[in-house]
Specification:
By secondary structure, the protein is of the alpha+beta class. It contains eleven helices and 21 strands.
Length: 491
């Protein structure tokens, strides 16, 4: 017996330790009497003849030829022709439009879509035999079609046929006139409010112009004062140089006199000369203290005033802007490869982009680590390239950093660009890409920043600017850029 089953699935014979099939057992099985498995046949035969019988049995089932149209009933071979003639999914011709449809779907076709099917007028004008294909045209000129009153924009809610409207106009003339007057009054009030706001804005504009003119006048006066003080300092420096030359000349004369007096022993005259020279040096020192040493004039009252004026006029605004920018960059910079960028005043910036005044915006820089790659984002609110005028275009930019010489190039990290959902449902719009190592956008920067690379068709403007858009709230949008830093290490 088969060693895998004690009941035995087939008789086996062993010979010299090798197992072979029992041919005699096979012959015995083939002689067994079995019954046809098809329902309705019941014929018995030897097992060896079963397969041949199944291929010829009239009770064998086949799929319906209309299976492609939806019939799933298995059909005995003997009934195939009869079923074919009566199959509910057989194709028949629609008597109205002459197109073929399954028999069981013909009625639904006529009721729902047949262009030649007759329908009554939905406005109940009396027409009962309007083809579906002509129904729309009939509705356009049907005498029973309901229409709104022409004073609907003034508040009249009446709806009726043309005949009813004529009666309505005659009966409600005074009411319509009153509605029109009320509407006209509201429009006049709105016009007055707009005119008042316009005048207020004009007044604000005039005040602003006056302030600018006053500031310009003060700046001119301040420059004039600085120029005058500079001229005075230059004259005083010139006098100081002349005195220094005179002192040098007297010192040289002193040495010559000492030589002569050493020869003729005129010590008295030398003593007097020394006193005169010391007095002259004291005068020179006093004058130098008053004017102040050096070309900058530091230490004297006039030069100090000049220095403060020059600082105020030439460097105050520049330094203030520089400090503000540095503080903003340091405050918002991230060092984990993630940028979260809030873009305020979206409508104004979009209008500037449409008018080609400021077509793109740059984000603050961010980094993959303290000593890693330096990057930023660039956005076109009115689109760029293929997306101009229809989409928002978003790009990724590799910038020149302090530690580029220690980093691996080209830049190969995966970049994900996202527009954040502000409703809290997490339905952010995003797109990802891996840098092309052959592109110049991801090589080691040779200038302040490389060419931007990203998505010209990042998101449709209609998606962002829709009435119920979750991506624009309080005239702001949020952009997020994620750089994959998992396989990076510090230099």
């Amino acid at each position: 017996m088969c060693p895998a089953n004690e009941d035995g699935c087939e008789r086996l014979a062993r010979h010299n330790g090798t197992i072979y099939q029992d041919i005699c057992a096979k012959k015995e099985v083939k002689e067994l009497i079995v019954e046809c498995p098809y329902s309705g046949c019941g014929q018995q035969m030897k097992w060896a003849l079963l397969e041949q019988h199944k291929s010829e049995c009239p009770h064998a089932t086949v799929p319906c030829i209309n299976a492609v149209h939806g019939c799933i009933t298995p059909i005995p071979v003997k009934d195939a022709e009869k079923h074919k003639a009566n199959c509910p999914f057989r194709l028949v011709e629609c008597p109205l439009c002459h197109l073929e449809y399954p028999y069981c779907m013909l009625e639904e076709h006529q009721n729902r879509e047949c262009p030649e099917y007759s329908l009554p007028c939905p406005f109940k004008c009396g027409e009962q035999t309007i083809c579906r294909k002509d129904l729309e045209a009939h509705q356009g000129h049907c005498a029973a079609r309901p229409e709104k009153c022409q004073y609907h924009q003034f508040g009249c809610q009446f709806v009726g046929t043309q005949h009813d409207l004529e009666k309505h106009y005659k009966a409600e003339t005074s009411q319509h006139l009153q509605m029109a007057l009320v509407k006209f009054g509201e429009m006049s009030l709105e016009q007055m409010q707009l005119e008042r706001k316009f005048k207020e804005s004009e007044n604000d504009k005039v005040m602003l112009v006056q302030r600018v003119q006053h500031a310009n006048s003060e700046a001119v006066n301040l420059r004039s004062i600085v120029s005058q003080q500079r001229d005075k300092v230059e004259k005083m420096e010139k006098k100081l140089k002349d005195l220094q030359k005179a002192v040098a000349t007297h010192v040289e004369s002193k040495f010559k006199v000492e030589e002569v007096m050493s020869e003729v022993a005129l010590k008295t005259d030398l003593h007097k000369q020394n006193k005169e020279l010391d007095a002259l040096q004291k005068v020179t020192r006093d004058l130098a203290n008053k004017v102040g040493p050096g070309s900058g004039g530091a230490g004297g009252p006039n030069s100090g005033h000049l220095h403060r004026l020059e600082q105020t006029v030439a460097h105050h605004d520049v330094r203030l802007a520089e400090y503000d920018m540095r503080f903003h960059v340091l405050e918002t910079a991230s060092f984990d490869g993630i940028l979260l960028w809030k873009i305020k005043d979206y409508d104004r910036r979009k209008n500037e982009a449409v008018g080609n005044r400021v077509i793109s915006l740059y984000s603050q820089p961010f980094y993959t680590s303290r000593h890693g790659y330096k990057m930023c984002a660039r956005i076109y609110l009115n689109g760029d390239g293929m997306g101009k005028g229809t989409h928002i275009s978003l790009f990724f930019v590799v910038m020149q950093g302090e530690y580029d010489d220690l980093l691996k190039w080209p830049f190969r990290q995966k970049v994900t660009l996202m527009l954040m959902d502000q409703d809290g449902t997490g339905k952010h719009l995003h797109d990802s890409f891996r840098p092309d190592p052959t592109s110049s956008s991801f090589q080691k920067p040779r200038s302040n920043m490389n060419v931007a690379s990203g998505c010209p068709l990042f998101v449709s403007q209609t998606v962002v600017e829709g009435a119920n858009s979750p991506y624009k709230k309080n005239d702001c949008i949020f952009i997020k850029v994620i750089v994959d830093t998992r396989d990076l290490s510090d230099p």
